[in-house]
Fold this sequence. Notes:
Layout: E1 2-3, E2 8-11, E3 15-16, H1 28-41, E4 47-52, E5 55-60, H2 62-70, E6 75-82, H3 86-111, H4 116-128
Parallel strand pairs: 3-5, 4-6
Antiparallel strand pairs: 1-6, 2-6, 4-5
Amino acid sequence: MQNSSAFQFLALDTIHESAANPRRTFEESKLHELAESIRQHGLIQPITVRPNSEGFEIVAGARRFRAAQLAELFAIPARIVEIDDAHQALQVPMVEEQIQFKVLIADLNSNFFSNESEAVSKLHQKLFQI
């Protein structure tokens, strides 16, 4: 995989979601919240795309892309990576989500709970509504 550490702005109409993305549904209210944040502050974290015959396919950042559409942006920041292997393209968003999960756990742990075990337990209760 080759990648560009810098990002560039891409027109939304040149970007499309991947049919292989396992995440298909997003909570509508959360998308609108993100869209409002993007209107106020811009898109802080670029999406990751790979070029293909139709323009650019999203590797990571479908939720940010949809929120940018709701915010009626013309272009968004994107990091372009050269990934030919579809399996490898699916690994990028999984790694991104693992990093976000670890950051969430660290934040929960440092702010609210006495240890990581308690934070994970509370998070599971919240996620699975036990």
